[in-house]
Amino acid sequence: MPLEPLLPLFHRLDREHFEARLGALADPPLSLRWSDGRMTRTAGLYRRGPGLCEIVLSRPLLVPLPREALLSTLCHEMIHAWVDRVLRVRESHGPGFRACLERINAAQQGFCVSVRHRYPLPQRPAAWLARCPGCGTAVPCRRRRAGLACRACCERHNGGVWDARFTLRFEPSPEGTVG
């Protein structure tokens, strides 16, 4: 499915809920973009720094979901921009944010803006297989850790005490990428 252009959605939400003030911000202007594909743990973010003010939406999380998830996330991040740049209040999800969220949810029925999302996170395949040299059992792992031993073999052959003979050996997982 192709990426939906964000600017028309932004301008519509800006007119409907933010008095068209977010699109008029300058010095720096508020920019909007899809993530490059690496943003996989949060649906969106608003950030501001010297010469920077932007909303970034997660392509991997939002593209497979219904359009309401995109609208809800975009509006959530726009509330952050509103509180920061228009109200000039430094807060995360404080009273100014919550008041704006409740006002928007009461004014429309198309989607619901929330403080936290419950979108499904894509599962990353394990990068490594940890294999026991004693029994040959392999367990998928996301990262390598030194000093791990096979519990079953340590219990069976050494009374449950750690034994170097059963130190797990890590090998690249066939379905994961090591990086």
Describe what this molecule looks like in 3D.
There is one protein chain. By secondary structure, this protein is an alpha+beta fold. It has two domains: 6-107, Zincin-like; 128-172, no CATH class. It is built from five helices and six strands; from the N terminus they run H-E-E-E-H-H-H-E-E-H-E. The chain has helices spanning 6-17, 59-62, 67-86, 95-107, 151-158; strands spanning 31-34, 44-49, 52-57, 128-131, 138-141, 169-172. The strands form two sheets. A three-stranded mixed beta sheet has the order 1-3-2, covered by helices on one side. The protein has a three-stranded antiparallel beta sheet with strand order 5-4-6, with no helix packed on it. It is elongated.
Poorly predicted runs: none
The tally of beta strands, per DSSP, is 6
Q: Count up the helices.
A: 5
CATH homology-level superfamily of the largest domain: Metalloproteases ("zincins"), catalytic domain
Measured as a percent range, the helix fraction is 25-40%
Assess the beta-strand content as a share of residues.
15-25%
Provide the gyration radius in Å: 24 Å
CATH architecture of the largest domain: 2-Layer Sandwich
Strand neighbour order, sheet with most strands: 1-3-2
Question: What distance separates the N and C termini?
Answer: 28 Å
What would the average pLDDT be, to the nearest integer?
91
